[in-house]
Specification:
Layout lengths: L3 E4 L5 H8 L3 E4 L11 E4 L6 H7 L5 E4 L9 H6 L3 E3 L6 H16 L2 H9 L18 E5 L3 H13 L3 E5 L13 E3 L3 H7 L2 E4 L13 H6 L4 E5 L8 H9 L3 E6 L19 E3 L8 H19 L20
Parallel strand pairs: 1-2, 1-3, 3-4, 4-5, 6-7, 6-9, 7-8, 9-10, 10-11, 11-12
Length: 320
C-alpha cells in the first residue's frame, strides 16, 4: 500500500505524476481526508496545533507550496517530529518580475492612463506625466532570493541606483554594478525614490514600514510590496498616500487578505493593486510544484528533504 499525500494545492500535472508514482495523492481542501497522510501540502491554510492534531501521528512532513511559511507553526511541527518545509526557489523569478511590473506601472501611471482611455474621460498630458526610472534610487529591503533578483533587474536592466538593506546580509555578498549596501534602514528610506519590500513576515518585521518609516521617506517616493501584507502598516500607508507624502504604491499583498472592498487603497488611482498573485505564473507554479515533488520523493525514500525550515527537526518521525 502506497503512503498517502494530502494536498490542498492543485499541483502541476508533471509534478503530480511524479508523486503519484510513489504515493496516493488526495487533492482536496477537506480536512476530513487529512488523517493518515504522511505528507500535507499546504497553500493558504494555517498549520497549528489543531491542524497537526487532526492529521495525527502518521504525518511526517508539512510542505508549503511557496516560499512564505508565516502561517506554519514551525516550533509546533518540530515538537511533534513533523518536518516543516517550503519551496523557496519556486516563486523567485515570477515574484521579482511582478515587483518590477508594479514599480513601472506606478511610475508610468498605467492605471490612470488606462482608466481615462477606457472610459473616454478628459485628460491632459501634464496630468498623466510619469517618471523615468533610470538613475532613480531604488531601496531594496530584504536581500533574499527575490530581493537579489529585483536588484539585478533594476540595476543592470533599468540602470537604477540600488541601495540594499538586510541585517542578515553576508559581508562577502556580491552585488551587481550600480548597487550598494547600507547599514541602516533609515539611510535607505531617506535616499530612495522607490522602496520595495522583500522581508519575510516575522515578529521583528511586523509593521516594519510604519508611520515613522514613511516620515523618513522622501516626499514623492513610491512603495512596492510583494512580500507579506503585515510587513507594512496598512493604515499608515493609507495616511501617507492621502496626505500626498507618497506619490503612489504598488501592492500585491494586504492585511488582511483579501482586502475589504471599501479599503481606501482600492479607490486610489495612484495605487496598483493585485490579489497576491505575484508567483502565480506558468513557470512559477511549475517550479513550486516540482519543489514539492522533489521533497516528497526524498522523504518517502528516507532522505532529508532539501528545504527543512528547522534543521534541528530532522529526522523527526522519520527516525521512529
Amino acid at each position: 500500500m502506497k503512503p498517502k499525500v494530502w494536498s490542498e494545492v492543485q499541483l502541476h500535472p508533471e509534478a503530480l505524476a511524479r508523486i503519484q508514482a510513489v504515493a496516493d495523492v488526495i487533492i482536496t481542501r477537506e480536512r476530513g481526508e487529512l488523517p493518515g497522510a504522511e505528507v500535507a501540502v499546504i497553500g493558504g491554510s494555517t498549520v497549528d496545533d489543531a491542524f497537526l492534531d487532526q492529521a495525527g501521528p502518521t504525518l511526517k512532513m508539512v510542505i508549503r507550496h511557496g516560499i512564505g511559511y508565516n502561517a506554519v507553526d514551525v516550533p509546533a511541527c518540530t515538537a511533534r517530529g513533523v518536518l516543516a518545509c517550503n519551496t523557496p526557489d519556486g516563486p523567485t523569478e515570477s515574484t521579482a518580475e511582478h515587483t518590477v511590473t508594479l514599480l513601472l506601472s506606478v511610475a508610468k501611471r498605467i492605471l490612470e492612463a488606462d482608466t481615462v482611455l477606457r472610459h473616454n474621460q478628459p485628460y491632459s498630458r501634464a496630468g498623466l506625466t510619469g517618471v523615468e526610472v533610470r538613475d532613480k534610487v531604488l531601496g531594496v529591503v530584504g536581500f533574499g532570493r527575490i530581493g537579489r533578483r529585483v536588484t539585478d533587474i533594476c540595476a543592470l536592466g533599468l540602470r537604477m541606483r540600488v541601495l540594499v538593506y538586510d541585517p542578515f546580509l553576508n559581508a562577502n555578498t556580491t552585488l551587481p554594478d550600480g548597487a550598494a549596501v547600507v547599514d541602516a534602514l533609515d539611510t535607505l528610506l531617506a535616499e530612495a525614490d522607490f522602496v520595495t519590500v522583500h522581508a519575510p513576515l516575522a515578529p521583528e518585521t511586523h509593521h516594519l514600514i510604519s508611520d515613522r518609516a514613511f516620515g523618513v521617506m522622501k516626499r514623492g517616493a513610491y512603495l512596492i510590496n510583494a512580500s507579506r501584507g503585515p510587513v507594512v502598516d496598512e493604515a499608515a500607508l493609507i495616511r501617507a498616500l492621502q496626505s500626498g507624502h507618497l506619490a503612489g504604491a504598488g501592492l500585491d499583498v494586504f492585511d488582511p487578505e483579501p482586502p475589504h472592498p471599501d479599503n481606501p487603497l482600492l479607490q486610489m488611482p495612484n495605487v496598483i493593486a493585485t490579489p497576491h498573485v505575484a508567483s502565480n505564473t506558468d513557470k512559477g507554479n511549475w517550479r513550486m510544484s516540482q519543489g514539492v515533488a522533489d521533497q516528497v520523493i526524498q522523504l518517502l525514500a528516507g532522505e532529508r528533504p532539501t528545504f527543512v525550515i528547522d534543521a534541528a527537526a530532522w529526522p523527526g518521525r522519520m527516525g521512529t
